[in-house]
Amino acid sequence: MVTKTRIEENGIRSSSNIEIIQNPRESIKLSYDLIKTAEKEVLRIFHSIHAFRRQVRMGIMHLFKEVVENDIIVRVLIHADEKQFRETVNEVKLVFPEIELRAIEMNLDTSIGIVVVDRKESLII
């Protein structure tokens, strides 16, 4: 609740719905549910190649495939160096060629992941 308290203290007013989710499982479920509601586009940023691999094991690529079958664009950015990216993505692209995967190299050491659906709804993890 620290973030929510800071927002209230600073008097930031917005029409946005800000909710803080403490339970990691609940946030992952919310992320998957949000992706299922997409009508046009899903944008997903993974903070590391390891986070991407973990989500692949949990079934996110099958969820993306379901979304793509409904003519929804799925674009994924993964924070990884080129070698790590190629090794992992080449395997994934063989099974899921319609999903757009790209690497981003940043000098930031972050653990933030982002989901944006139809450029209206977002979830920061």
How would you describe what is shown here?
Helix content is 43%, strand content 21%. It has helices at 2-9, 24-36, 49-58, 60-68, 82-95, and strands at residues 41-46, 73-79, 100-104, 114-117, 121-124. The chain has a five-stranded mixed sheet with strand order 3-2-1-4-5. The chain is built from five helices and five strands. It has a single domain (23-124), classed as Endonuclease, Chain A. By secondary structure, it is α/β, with parallel strands linked by helices. Mean pLDDT is 83; it is low at 1-6.
Question: Which key phrases capture this entry?
Answer:
125 residues, alpha/beta, Endonuclease, Chain A, five-stranded mixed sheet, 43% helix, disordered N terminus
Task: Describe the secondary structure blueprint for this structure.
Blueprint (H helix, E strand, L loop, with lengths): L1 H8 L14 H13 L4 E6 L2 H10 L1 H9 L4 E7 L2 H14 L4 E5 L9 E4 L3 E4 L1
Parallel strand pairs: 1-2, 2-3
Antiparallel strand pairs: 1-4, 4-5
Q: Tell how many strands the DSSP assignment holds.
A: 5
Low-confidence stretches: 1-6
Tally of DSSP helical segments: 5
- Overall, the morphology is globular
CATH H level, superfamily name = Endonuclease Chain A
Give the radius of gyration.
Answer: 16 Å
CATH class: Alpha Beta
Using the coordinates shown, work out and report the CATH topology.
Endonuclease, Chain A
Strand order of the largest sheet: 3-2-1-4-5
User: How many domains, in number, for the residues?
Assistant: 1
How much of the sequence is in beta strands? Answer: 15-25%
Order of helices and strands: HHEHHEHEEE
Report the structural category: alpha/beta
